[in-house]
Amino acid sequence: MQNNNLTKELFSNIKTTGALTFSSSFLVDKMLSQVDFSNAKFLVELGGGNGVITHQILKRMRPDAKLVVFEVNKTFCDILDRINDPRIQVVCDSAEILPDVLAQNAGAADAIISSLPFSLIPKPVRINIYKACANGIGEKGTFVQIAYSIFLRGEFKQHFGKVKTGFTLLNLPPAFVYTCINQ
Ligand SMILES: C[S@@+](CC[C@H](N)C(=O)[O-])C[C@H]1O[C@@H](n2cnc3c(N)ncnc32)[C@H](O)[C@@H]1O
Fold this sequence. Notes:
The protein is an alpha/beta fold. The chain has a single domain (3-181), classed as Rossmann fold (3-Layer(aba) Sandwich), CATH 3.40.50. The protein has helices at residues 3-12, 14-17, 25-32, 52-60, 74-81, 98-104, 123-136, 152-157, and strands spanning 42-46, 66-70, 88-91, 111-114, 142-147, 162-168, 175-181. It has a seven-stranded mixed β-sheet, with helices on both faces. Helix 3 packs across helix 4. The protein is globular and about 40 Å long. The N and C termini lie far apart (42 Å). S-adenosylmethionine binds at residues 16-19, 22-23, 46-49, 52-53, 70-73, 76, 94-95, 115-117.
């Protein structure tokens, strides 16, 4: 499917995608600069979409690392399933089942990289996902989130030990990058 059609898919499902356009390369670079790829062996992406972040994660990942990508939209899952890389596993399901997937894998992730539209996800559900992410990165991992709103910062502060906030104008709309750790 062409990128124009994928953008239409994003737009026509705005209630679950929360975006009019996919993340810019500037935003993706800024987000991924927060991850220590040289030491990361198990990574998780939440909200893979058209794979704009996924491809850049795979580019930076170690040859022996594994990436699990969650996505709820079937059209996007089909696109992600076509990525020909033995290191990726696509879970066509909600990030709410993150704890089950972590239990089947390494138990903890070195990095969880998320573009989930949390402001559109009902509060009880998003709180469960925050808890799963905070548990999921353990003491050493990193959770990185891109978002268009500053309000998430307060919620992240309640679930992670430290929250660092970055910002870029080089995205439509301009976006925040939240980097959360537990130490
Ligand atoms: C803002 S788009 C980001 C797409 C792409 N990663 C990017 O950065 O441009 C959010 C994506 O999260 C997916 N999504 C929404 N709720 C989800 C959930 N509970 N679990 C997994 N994916 C979800 C949407 O279908 C959409 O593809």
